[in-house]
Write a structure and sequence with these properties.
heterodimer, A: alpha+beta, elongated, B: about 180 residues, mainly alpha, 9 helices
C-alpha cells in the first residue's frame, strides 16, 4: 500500500450516506431484489398462526357455550312466554316457557287504537303475568331467588304491554324471511321519507328528557334462530308511574350480517313512539339523548333525536358480537310531515310478519343489565 | 457486531421481510458505493448491487458472526457478485496495459485531499475494468495478489501489473484534476 492507496482507502471506505443522496441506491433496486429473495416461512411461524387460529376458534366456541349457558339460566332476561292472543283479544290461550313469544292476531290496528285500554283485558293478562312469575320462581335456584324477588319489585306493567300487543299481527316465519321482509320495507321508507333538515329537528324545544333510570320491559322482534333484534320494540318503564314507549327498529340495507352467528355490524334506526299512553307528561328536559346500555354481553350506544314531545327517532352504528350489540347513532334527519306515514307503515309492516320476543330488562340484574347516561 | 444486528439477521434468516429492510437500510450506502466502484457506470453499478443484494440475502444463513463482521462478509459477497457481473462482459479484454501514466508528486496530496468521495468514485469508475477491479480488490477490499489471481483467473504478475497501472492512471487523473483546479 502506498500513499495513494491510503488516500483512496481512507476516502472511499467512509460509507455514510451523503446528504445529496448520490450514494443512496434507488428503491426500485431493492424492490426488484426482494422479488428474487425467497420469503421463507418457518415452522415456528406456521405453528404460531396455528395456535392463534386455535385460540380464536376456542374463544368463539367457549363464548357460544357460555352464552347459551347464561340464556338457560337468565330468568331475568327472558320472560319468553308463548302467548297466543285471539283476534278479539279476549282469551289467553296458553302460557309456557320458550325462547320465542309468538303473538298471533289477525289484523293490525291503527296507532290510535292502542290508546284504548280494556280493563277486563288488563285483568286477564295480569293473571297470566302472575302465573308466569310463579312458574319462573319455581325454576330458579336458591341463589337467584333474592335477585328474582328484587326484579319482581319492578314487575312488568303488563297492562300496557298487552295493549301494545293488541295492535300487532305477528305470524311466525323463518328468520330469513323475516329479515327479507323487514329489510325491503325499511329500505323503501328510508330512501323515500327519511329526509329532513336539521333546522326543523333543532326547533323542537320544551321536550322533557325521558327517565332512563327506571326498569323497563322491552318487546322486540328477535330472530328465532339467533335472537338478533329484527324489528319493533315496545318499551315500558315503571317508576312513579308507568310509561309506555313504542319502538320501531327496522333493518335497513346497510345492516351487514356476518357469517359468524350472533355477530353483526351495521346501522340501526329506530322510531320511538311515546304517545301510547294518554295524558302522561313524562318528559321535562328538552335535550337529545345519547344512551349507552349494556345488556349482558350487549353494549348499545344510541343517539335519540326528539322530534315531538312523545316521539323520537333513533339511529346509529352498532356492532354485535356473541349476542352483543353496540349502537351509535348519527342519523337525525326525518321529514316531520312524513313521520306519521313512516311510523304507521313501518310499524304495521314490521309487526305483521315476525316473531316477537318479550324481554324484561332490569337494572343491575345478574343476567340483564341496563345502564343509561 | 452488536447483539441487535445479530437478532435482526436471525429474523431475516427466518424470512422476516421487516428484518430484510432493516439490514438493507443500514448497509445500502456501503453496498452501493462498492457497486459503483466496480461498475463502469451507474447502470452497471445498479446491476451489480441488485445481484449482490440477492446473493447476500439468499446466503444470509451462511453468515457466521464469529468468523467475520457482517459488513466484511457482505462486502465480499457483493464483490463476488460484481466480478460475476463483469465476467459477463468482455472480461478477457479488460487486462490491457495503458502506458504513459505520469506520476504525481507528493506536494499535491494536501490539495487532492479536498476531492470528495463522489469525485473519487467517479475517477475509479473511469478506469478500465481490469485496472478498476484489481485496484478495488487490492486497495479497498484487502485481497492479496494471490487471492485476486485466483478470483480473476489471472496470474499474480498480471494482478500486480494491473494494480500498478491503475495507480498510474489515477495519478494522471488526479493531476489533471489539480491542473483544472489551479487554473
Amino acid at each position: 500500500m502506498n500513499r495513494l492507496d491510503d488516500f483512496f482507502n481512507k476516502k472511499l471506505t467512509n460509507y455514510s450516506e451523503d446528504t445529496d443522496g448520490w450514494n443512496i441506491p434507488d428503491d426500485a433496486i431493492w424492490e426488484r431484489a426482494l422479488e428474487q429473495i425467497p420469503q421463507k416461512k418457518t415452522r415456528r411461524s406456521y405453528f404460531a398462526w396455528w395456535l392463534f387460529g386455535l385460540g380464536i376458534f376456542l374463544g368463539f366456541v367457549s363464548g357460544y357455550f357460555l352464552s347459551n349457558n347464561n340464556e338457560s339460566t337468565e330468568f331475568v332476561i327472558a320472560q319468553t312466554d308463548k302467548v297466543n292472543i285471539s283476534e278479539n283479544n279476549d282469551k289467553i290461550i296458553t302460557t309456557e316457557e320458550s325462547t320465542d313469544l309468538a303473538f298471533n292476531t289477525t289484523n293490525t290496528q291503527k296507532k290510535s287504537n292502542l290508546n284504548r285500554i280494556n280493563d277486563a283485558e288488563y285483568n286477564k293478562v295480569s293473571k297470566v303475568s302472575n302465573l308466569k312469575n310463579i312458574h319462573n320462581k319455581d325454576r330458579i335456584n336458591q341463589t337467584g331467588e333474592e335477585q328474582f324477588q328484587e326484579i319482581n319489585k319492578h314487575s312488568i306493567p303488563v297492562r300496557e304491554t298487552v295493549r301494545s300487543v293488541e295492535k300487532t299481527e305477528v305470524i311466525r316465519e323463518s328468520s330469513s324471511k323475516e329479515t327479507s321482509v323487514i329489510s325491503d320495507e325499511f329500505t323503501k321508507i328510508s330512501k323515500k321519507d327519511a329526509i329532513a333538515t336539521s333546522d326543523k329537528l333543532n326547533s323542537h324545544q320544551n321536550i322533557p328528557l325521558i327517565d332512563n333510570s327506571a326498569p323497563r320491559t322491552v318487546m322486540t322482534l328477535l330472530s328465532p334462530m339467533n335472537r338478533r333484534p329484527l324489528g319493533t320494540s315496545l318499551f315500558m318503564r315503571g317508576n312513579s308511574r308507568p310509561i309506555v314507549l313504542g319502538e320501531i327498529q327496522p333493518l335497513d340495507e346497510k345492516r351487514k350480517w356476518l357469517n359468524m352467528p350472533r355477530e353483526e355490524v351495521g346501522v340501526s334506526r329506530s322510531f320511538y313512539l311515546l304517545d301510547l299512553l294518554d295524558n302522561v307528561d313524562f318528559r321535562e328536559d328538552p335535550r337529545d339523548e345519547i344512551a349507552q346500555s349494556t345488556i349482558f354481553k350487549n353494549i348499545n350506544f344510541n343517539y335519540r333525536k326528539w322530534l315531538r314531545p312523545r316521539l323520537s327517532f333513533q339511529s346509529g352504528l352498532y356492532y354485535t358480537k356473541l349476542d352483543g350489540m353496540l349502537d351509535f347513532s348519527v342519523f337525525d334527519k326525518v321529514e316531520e310531515e312524513n313521520l306519521d306515514n313512516i311510523l304507521d307503515s313501518t310499524f304495521e309492516n314490521l309487526t305483521n310478519q315476525s316473531t316477537v320476543n318479550v324481554r324484561s330488562t332490569t337494572e343491575n340484574s345478574q343476567g340483564d343489565i341496563s345502564m343509561h347516561y | 457486531m452488536s447483539k441487535e444486528l445479530n437478532h435482526i439477521i436471525r429474523k431475516a434468516v427466518n424470512g422476516d421481510q421487516k428484518a430484510y429492510n432493516e439490514i438493507y437500510m443500514q448497509y445500502r450506502s456501503m453496498w452501493f458505493m462498492i457497486s459503483m466502484r466496480y461498475g463502469k457506470n451507474k447502470m452497471q453499478s445498479e446491476d451489480i448491487l441488485q445481484d449482490g443484494l440477492i446473493r447476500i440475502f439468499n446466503d444470509l444463513a451462511k453468515y457466521d458472526s464469529k468468523k467475520s463482521r457482517f459488513s466484511t462478509w457482505s462486502s465480499r459477497v457483493l464483490v463476488n457478485a460484481a466480478l460475476r457481473n463483469l465476467q459477463k462482459s468482455n472480461w478477457n479484454e479488460t487486462f490491457v496495459d495503458i502506458e504513459n501514466a505520469e506520476d504525481i508528486t507528493d506536494e499535491y496530496f494536501s490539495i487532492i485531499d479536498e476531492i470528495n468521495t463522489k469525485e473519487l468514485t467517479l475517477m475509479i469508475q473511469s478506469l478500465p475494468t481490469g485496472y478498476r477491479v484489481v485496484f478495488n480488490m487490492y486497495v479497498l477490499e484487502g485481497y492479496s495478489h494471490k487471492e485476486i489471481a485466483e478470483h480473476l483467473n489471472i496470474s499474480e504478475g498480471t494482478s500486480k501489473s494491473q494494480l500498478s497501472k491503475a495507480r498510474k492512471q489515477l495519478r494522471h487523473i488526479l493531476e489533471s484534476q489539480l491542473k483544472v483546479t489551479r487554473r
